[in-house]
Design brief:
411 residues; alpha/beta; seven-stranded mixed β-sheet; 19 helices; 7% strand; globular; disordered N terminus
Length: 411
């Protein structure tokens, strides 16, 4: 057996162990581990940004006692800091959110806080880099004022023209005194290509029909459970279509699905999701969700959940832990977004496509040359190593082949 095959077999075994440990964290059910390598497993937990949840499961296994002291110490230190920071961020967000609702606004909370609440006692073990809220364009000025009055400043200050707000996906805010970041979404998936626009249209009525829930005695507005489940699926697909998704996307789906299993219309969500990609992708995702404790079922047949798992585990939380895939991301985007011009068009996209990624061009088209220059600089920087470029294209083509096999649908 070649070294490469041995390595792949070993990694597949550790991936299986990893899922079993996460399942234990979430469900309390124990499994038989197969020669667990906790040094490798710990690194996977860090790459997938799921270390606090992983640790909760790992400590229940006697094999963990033999793990290297260094990896134990790192897991404990990382998890403790992460949980404390997330607890603080949650309290800070609810304080800011209350100011928005006190002003008569009904911002829709997406993902983060709502997903974390589905984790029960592990809610603050599930780290969130930021909090996302969805608002109407008409509510933007008041939201912007309240955030800035409370020390949250936009990361890219500009004049927010009507045309700009009609195209941009979100405005990001951060504070000098808090770790929390807040993203105000004007649309949910951006406007880069017809697929993203079609995803947005699925939530045209979301702001008119919010779902209320209580979080730490604070009433928040969010999506209806079926819509939120669909949103999580499409958010996962959005990442998978470019640099890649991570296992945490699947974990969120499994946990959220279990939490709201009595109110989610799973067949309806599956039907709407498979307007964007073949049912085999949903079926393989559901298989992975089941391995993590999810109770969902799928009507379609799967393709190969092992290939999907390898792709999710190789890329880290959002695909950025694999440098080759990060570089290949624009190439993959050019294919999945409908471009016919490969790498050239990924570096020099059309004005319309580039404007959707850099909405300031709508109001200031004369900035187009400077944006192209920045893209060229980044492209050259990544092209310095021909072998790395070759590997990037190989991995990009592998992802495209996987997407093709799953039947990504054009819009």
């Amino acid at each position: 057996m070649s070294c490469w095959i041995k390595r792949m077999c070993q990694m597949n075994k550790q991936y299986d162990n990893f899922l079993k440990i996460i399942n234990t964290s979430l469900t309390g059910r124990m499994s038989n581990l197969d020669d667990p390598d906790f040094e490798s497993l710990g690194e996977l937990a860090f790459c997938q940004d799921i270390a606090p949840i992983f640790l909760e499961g790992a400590i229940k296994y006697p094999e963990f006692s033999a793990a290297p002291i260094s990896i134990k110490a790192r897991l404990i230190d990382n998890s403790t800091k992460s949980v404390i920071r997330q607890t603080q961020n949650t309290a800070e967000f609810l304080s800011i959110y209350s100011k928005l609702t006190d002003a008569g606004l009904k911002p829709i909370v997406l993902k983060g806080l709502v997903c974390r609440k589905a984790y029960g006692n592990l809610e603050n073990h599930r780290a969130s880099g930021d909090e996302d809220i969805f608002i109407s364009k008409a509510d933007f000025p008041l939201c912007h004022k309240i955030l800035t009055d409370n020390g949250y400043l936009p990361e890219d200050e500009r004049d927010y023209s009507d045309r700009y707000l009609s195209r941009i996906a979100a405005v990001a805010y951060s504070s000098e005194t808090a770790h929390l970041k807040i993203e105000l979404h004007l649309n949910l998936f951006g406007t880069q290509n017809p697929v993203r626009k079609a995803m947005n249209r699925r939530f045209d009525e979301a702001l008119k029909n919010p779902y209320k829930m209580l979080c730490d005695k604070v009433e928040i507005y969010t999506l209806q459970p079926t819509d939120h489940y669909l949103f999580l699926l499409l958010h996962y697909l959005k990442h998978f279509m470019t640099t890649g998704a991570g296992i945490r996307h699947v974990t969120d789906l499994a946990v959220f699905g279990n939490k709201y299993k009595n109110v989610i219309d799973f067949p309806d969500a599956e039907k709407k999701f498979t307007e964007f990609i073949d049912g085999s992708f949903y079926a393989d995702t559901v298989k992975l969700m089941n391995l993590l404790g999810g109770e969902e079922t799928a009507s379609a047949k799967g393709l190969d959940c092992g290939r999907l798992l390898n792709d999710l585990m190789d890329g880290g939380t959002f695909g950025y832990d694999d440098r080759d895939l990060t570089y290949a991301g624009t190439f993959i985007s050019s294919k999945t977004g409908g471009s016919r011009f490969g790498l050239f068009r990924s570096v020099f996209p059309s004005y319309d496509l580039l404007s959707s990624m850099h909405p300031e061009l709508y109001d200031k088209p004369w900035k187009l040359p400077s944006v192209y220059c920045k893209r060229i600089t980044g492209y050259i920087k990544n092209k310095r190593n021909p072998e790395a470029e070759k590997k990037a294209i190989e991995k990009g083509n592998k992802r495209i082949k996987l997407l093709s096999d799953y039947g990504l649908k054009k819009k």
